Each structure stands twice: as C-alpha cells, then as structure tokens.
UniProtKB/TrEMBL annotation:
Keywords: Apoptosis, Cell membrane, Cell projection, Cytoplasm, Fatty acid metabolism, Hydrolase, Lipid metabolism, Membrane, Transit peptide. GO terms for biological process: fatty acid metabolic process. Signal peptide: none annotated. It holds the Pfam family 4HBT. This is Acyl-coenzyme A thioesterase THEM4. It comes from Actinomadura hallensis. The keyword DNA-binding does not apply. It comes from the Bacteria. GO terms for molecular function: hydrolase activity. The keyword Transcription regulation does not apply. The lineage of its organism: Bacteria, Bacillati, Actinomycetota, Actinomycetes, Streptosporangiales. It is a peripheral membrane protein. Residues 5-62 form the RHA1-ro05818 N-terminal helical domain. Residues 117-184 form the Thioesterase domain.
Length: 203
C-alpha cells in the first residue's frame, strides 16, 4: 500500500490556527523577557484563546477517533502534521521507492547548543522520518531500536535535510537508516530496527 508522504496544509480551519500558533511559539522564544512586550497582557490574551478552545473541544475519545480516520497520523503527528503546532513541519518528497527526504529550517524553539538543533529534536525528526520511509517502502513498523551518531552540530536558521531509507525487511524486522545533513555534510546519522506491527486505531 502506498502512503501519502505529506498532508496538504489547508489555508483555513485548524491548519490556519496551527500556523498562527507556530508563529506565537517562535515569537515568544525570540522575545524572552528582554522584549518590549507587555507579557502579562500577552499571557491574558493567550489564556483567553486557550479557554475558548478548551470550552468547545470535543471529548478526547471522539477527537482520537477523528485523528485516526482516513490517512491516519499525517495530519496530526509532531513532525509533519499541519494540525500540530509543535511540528516544524517537515514535508517529505520521494527520492526513490525506498527513500524519502525533507528540507526545513529550524529556529529558536528547537535550540539545544547555541544556534544549534537540540539532540532530542534531531532524534524526533529521524525516528519519524525512518518510520515514514518504511511506510513509503511498503512495510511499516514500530521503532524497537534507534541508534544515533551526532557527528557535528546541526545548525538552526539554515536549511537542513532529513532523509531516510528502508534497507531491508527480514520477517518482522525492518532495518532503516537516515541522516540529517546541512550544506551536504552529515550532522546526525541514524540506524533503526523496526518491528512490523502497529497498534489498533481508536474507533
Ligand atoms: C505509515 C505510517 C508512518 C508512521 C511513522 C511513525 C513513526 C513513529 C515511530 C515511533 O515513534 S513508534 C513509537 C516508539 N516505539 C515504541 O513505543 C515501541 C514499543 N515497543 C513495542 O511495542 C514492542 O516491544 C515491539 C512492537 C517493538 C516489539 O514487540 P512484539 O511483541 O511485537 O515483538 P516480539 O517481542 O515478538 O519480537 C519480535 C522480534 O523482534 C525482536 N525484537 C523486538 N524488540 C526488539 C528490540 N528492542 N531490539 C532487538 N530486537 C527486538 C525480537 O527479539 C523478535 O525477534 P525474533 O523473531 O528473531 O525472535
């Protein structure tokens, strides 16, 4: 079964609100307490938005069923999801039948070392990208092992490419590799063992 590599971002609905929330997250981290903003007022206004959303949200089990309808997690996952404000978001393209890649630029919300991507964020991007590469290649699974090597700092504020390739399928064991590169140089490389299975979708 071929999977969709990315969900289209819609200009309206929750996607538009999520895009605004990403701007807010970025702007807050950028501003800190040395900005000229009235942060008490900012907090009041953001809490008013959250109050409104919480008051009108569906029951959790109903939303979970809704999330896992149709093309599954591509709309809400924390790496590519247009419905998820913590997703950068990545937008995958096929390189070949087993390989995918996405190019993005990360900013201050994802900082670890100075002006560099947090190692846990790199792990998130690679885990997910390896997982989607498996789906693209035709055999999906759950991450059982993920081994990362951090070769050099991964820069913020400039394009980085996250790529993954399914290497082999042996019974239920799927082996997948990936890397994050900047300016063509490897920053992080990954080797993953996935086990072919997936939890049932909420119904
Ligand atoms: C198209 C969709 C795209 C979606 C992309 C999303 C990507 C997101 C990726 C994730 O984040 S997944 C979430 C993180 N992973 C987990 O939470 C997994 C938690 N662990 C489990 O659920 C189970 O341990 C697991 C499914 C991995 C394996 O349990 P099973 O009961 O299905 O497997 P089993 O114990 O029967 O082992 C099957 C084989 O795998 C081997 N195996 C299992 N876990 C292993 C491990 N950790 N290391 C090495 N080998 C392992 C095991 O030895 C055995 O080998 P043999 O067949 O040779 O005997």
């Amino acid at each position: 079964m071929t999977i969709d590599l990315h969900a289209e971002t819609r200009p309206t609905g929750v996607d538009a609100a999520v895009a605004a929330a990403r701007r807010v997250i970025d702007a807050l981290v950028r501003a800190g307490d040395i900005s000229g903003a009235d942060m008490a007022d900012v907090a009041d206004r953001l809490n008013a938005v959250a109050d409104d959303l919480e008051d009108t949200a569906p029951p959790l089990d109903e939303r979970l069923v809704d999330m896992w309808r149709g093309d599954g997690n591509t709309r809400h996952d924390p790496v590519t999801g247009p419905e998820n404000p913590i997703a950068p978001p990545l937008r995958y393209e096929a390189v070949d039948t087993r390989t995918i890649e996405a190019t993005t630029t990360l900013g201050l919300p994802h900082q670890g070392p100075p002006s560099s991507v947090h190692g846990g964020v790199s792990a998130l991007l690679l885990d997910h990208t390896l997982g989607v590469a498996n789906g693209w290649a035709g055999t999906s699974g759950m991450t059982a092992e993920l081994t990362l090597r951090y070769h050099r700092l991964t820069p913020l504020f400039e394009p980085i490419t996250v790529a993954a390739r399914q290497v082999s399928v042996d019974g239920r064991k799927i082996r997948t590799t990936g890397e994050i590169t900047a300016n063509g140089e490897p920053c992080v490389t990954a080797e993953g063992l996935f086990i072919a299975t997936y939890p049932p979708r909420p119904r």
